[in-house]
Amino acid sequence: MEQEIVKVFNEQHEQIGTATRAEVHEKGLWHETFHCWLVNEDYIYFQIRSAQKKDYPGLLDITAAGHLLAVETVESGIREVKEELGLDVDVHEVVKMGMTSCSIVSENMIDNEFCHVFIYPFKHDWESFNLQYEEVSGVVRAKLDEAEAFFLGETATLNIEGYEYFPDGQRAKIVRPVSAAQFVPYRELYVAHVIQFVKDKML
Fold first, then answer.
1. Distance (Å, whole) CA 20 – CA 4
2. Where would I find the Nudix hydrolase domain in this sequence (predicted)?
3. Are the beta carbons of 116 and 68 closer than 8 angstroms?
4. Could you tell me if residue 169 is left (phi over 0), alpha (psi between -120 and 50 degrees) or otherwise beta?
5. Residue 197 phi/psi, 5° resolution?
6. Residue 163: which of 192, 135, 130 has the closest Cα?
7. Do residues 7 and 18 lie in contact, with contact meaning Cβ atoms separated by under 8 Å?
8. For the segment 76-95, what is each residue's pLDDT rounded down to a tens digit?
9. Which residue ranges of the chain lie beneath pLDDT 70?
10. Are residues 156 and 6 in contact, defined by beta-carbon separation less than 8 angstroms?
11. For residue 134, what is the DSSP state?
């Protein structure tokens, strides 16, 4: 996976070449990712990153996301929803929110991303998930209004509910409050902007 080839961009989102995933994170090169948020009129959904992940193991994250390879179009990123969550989603079923930039510097890497953000109106239930366990260990949701307040910094905790899934087909219910420390550190207000878009354009 670290040797997959991705497009490399300058800060104006003009392509300047290609590099491996390992290189872009090591050198802080700008590259493209695909984000797909599952939402409905009441909830926004988050994945729990697998404990096996090198980066941010066990933290809450975008419902489905991944790097766009050099040979892929932006729309090709819809494959991430099938790969990570086991959901068959057609690109015509998602709503394009737009592109945002995100820069996260951690001990392991410098992650400079142009993120293509899509919203999927989720009308299924918990049974429909078939997770890729090396990537995702669970799915949870939070009420839209509560999540908006949390990501705007108005509340210190957010109530989540959902399931941790196990390779043998079992699952364990999760109901608990979480703090910002339990989330991958997105750019400030990113998730709040996603929720505002959903409320303005989709509900």
1. 5
2. 29-168
3. yes
4. left
5. -60, -45
6. 130
7. yes
8. 999 999 999 999 999 999 99
9. none
10. no
11. T
